[in-house]
Amino acid sequence: MDHKDLRKWSGEAAKWAEDYHASLRERPVRAQTTPGVTAAKLPEIAPEAAEDMAAIFEDFKAIVPDAMTHWQHPRFFAYFPGNASPASMLAEQLANAISAQAMLWQTAPAANEIEEVMIRWLRDALGLSNHFTGTIHDSATTATLSAILTMRERALDWKGIAEGLSGQPLLRLYASAETHSSVDKAARLAGIGQNNLVKIDTDFENGMDPAALDSAITADSAAGYLPAGVILCVGGTSIGATDPINACLDVAKARNLYTHIDAAWAGSAMICPEFRALWTGVDKADSIVFNPHKWLGVQFDCAVQFLADPTPQINTMGLRPEYLKTQGAEDIVNYNEWTVPLGRRFRALKIWFTLRAYGLTGLRERIRNHVSWANKVAEVISTLPDFTIATAPALSLFTFQYVPEGQNPNEATAKLLERINNDGRIYLTQTLHEGKFVIRVQVGQFDCTRDDVMMIPKVLSDLTRGS
Ligand code: PLP
């Protein structure tokens, strides 16, 4: 296959993509397959001889789509969305066509400069103070790992990266039980240890209790630990919990601790000024992550980290050997020095395309609709026999339980969830909240309509009527 063939097959792929997206409402949302079925359709070993693209494309159509869960399905209400607006898909195609490795300014000047401008556009769109700069990572997990490595090194006065952790004081990090497992993972990978990530009690609204944070730091300092940083969440994964950002940042700042806010999902909603009260005080944070690849419509993968001052992170992760220097431009921003990998994709292009193709007004309208439809659908579910809302909508996420008389609610809810996802019209997932197995509903798919959302109570009624 050469570049002339690529033109022909790109055209075929575009036609297939249009038909695929048009067919989504007729497809079951969650893949209706079992482990091993797809692998068994592939030969045991790689082909020796080149194959015709027509045959490869036919196999793709026969094997892949039916064995995929359709994240762009308008009735995908599981996890959080992984939205890919058509404009961001186009940008990815163009970035693929150029296929640059954007590790340094000089290896991809446009990619680096558009990244700088997109960080500014997004910072302003989210209403953040103009002292923030930032960068793009693949995922929130990597951004959080970067922030936690920075917390570690700042607390150790950069001795960890030079000498290793052996012989250094034992560090402590603080987060609430509602923070995402990526924080636990980062504590493990950073060599701090998961047991030194202290989970602070939450108050009755499921946010971190600032007084408990203060006491934990005092107790740890007295016991000889070195507190290094606080990780706060805005819109946690399980039920959308948010820590009281202002009060917790005040506690952390009074102790000179580095702070990171995980707003991976909810950050996108901050393009709407009316939701910003959720993170009042955010401008005092050192680091903030949000995923435009979740709710904003920028194709996966794309995680934006805002930094009040990039220097501590660059001091922690940046290396500039001779072969990575840009002759005559020592002051140039090379984003690989801000992030874990050296190699970088041109992710800023899809942000640029998305913001321009829909405008902030169009994106705000989508998010406002999702929040309002989530509230409406929670209200309808609360009126269905045997259903209770377990946690009220946090933005567009809520949870419910199925509690038929005489049955164990956790078991009944789990069984119902399997029936919902086998039915295929909608896709929902579960969480455990205060010992209860509950079903999560998040409304946020880029193309979903009010009718798609109202399919949720219809499916619940259809599956439980007479049962
Ligand atoms: N933080 C929160 C609140 C999340 O919901 C998620 C994923 O859903 C993550 C972090 C991890 O995101 P990523 O897949 O970009 O690493």
TrEMBL record:
<dbReference type="InterPro" id="IPR015422">
    <property type="entry name" value="PyrdxlP-dep_Trfase_small"/>
</dbReference>
<dbReference type="Pfam" id="PF00282">
    <property type="entry name" value="Pyridoxal_deC"/>
</dbReference>
<comment type="similarity">
    <text>Belongs to the group II decarboxylase family.</text>
</comment>
<dbReference type="InterPro" id="IPR015421">
    <property type="entry name" value="PyrdxlP-dep_Trfase_major"/>
</dbReference>
<keyword id="KW-0663">Pyridoxal phosphate</keyword>
<keyword id="KW-0210">Decarboxylase</keyword>
<dbReference type="InterPro" id="IPR015424">
    <property type="entry name" value="PyrdxlP-dep_Trfase"/>
</dbReference>
<protein>
    <submittedName>
        <fullName>Pyridoxal phosphate-dependent decarboxylase family protein</fullName>
    </submittedName>
</protein>
<keyword id="KW-0456">Lyase</keyword>
<dbReference type="InterPro" id="IPR002129">
    <property type="entry name" value="PyrdxlP-dep_de-COase"/>
</dbReference>
<dbReference type="InterPro" id="IPR010977">
    <property type="entry name" value="Aromatic_deC"/>
</dbReference>
